[in-house]
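Why Response regulatory domain-containing protein? Reviewers of the renewal asked for a concrete example.
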Amino acid sequence: MKLTVLLVEDDKLFATIHAEALRDLGYTVLFAEDGEDGVKKAQTENPNVIVLDIGLPKKDGFEVLKELKASDETSSIPVIMYSRLSAREDVNQALALGASEYLIKSQHTPEDLAEHVQRFASLRAGFSSVQRVLLFGTLCVLLGITFYQYLVFRDRSYDADTLLAAERARQAFLAAAQEQSTLVCDSGSALSACRVCTGGDCTAGDQTQTVLHSEWFGSGEACTENSTAPCALSVEWVAGKEGDLRQARIRFYQRRSRDGRAGGRTYVLGPAGISL
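Here is what the prediction returned.
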């Protein structure tokens, strides 16, 4: 008997790609494109695992998760939150509501997701005595790895140069450029605190804020490889792909006391993260 996975995701292409990886492992995949449909299918189909996005129409992922865990019919179904949101408060909220795991989309491939689904689907399907012993040992190892990853994440969360911070800053800038708005970092030394804003929301309220403008919004000299003083953020296009923000590199000025240089330095933010 095939195990069933309910994929609650409003991005059809994204859902299709991940469904293929799940089918390769022998799963039957059900789809729901909004939160309300996700709850209904969870109640009627009783899947072995639910993969749940947060940014959904009608009901967001947090509302869906809360409703699933409040119902006797669906409370025992493992729910893997799979979202682009990477803030610690989002992770904590999902786990507090009963999510079995929280995966960040930018850090996992469809194959990674399929492996996590396989682990939870097997748990719900039941095991023999031997399998339970093996599972217990595996879970102990996974728990140790997860705890280690938590410690690493906790330490890195205070470091502006982590991959997580780089990814959040890159996504925020791309959104800002596409929407013709501005990127504001609420803490001058923490790229993970960047947010997109428009109009009056972009005002730097105190000295801890750094406002990064794209070159067409900023004033003064654009940042270059040799910039050693505050400069306007600039975009460096990939040859032959001018205008493609997904592959562009962003050069900006960052003032940090630990640099050991007066005035800070310029950094390049690209698909691979931050580099000098």
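The chain has seven helices and twelve strands. This is the kind of structural detail the renewal will allow us to pursue systematically.
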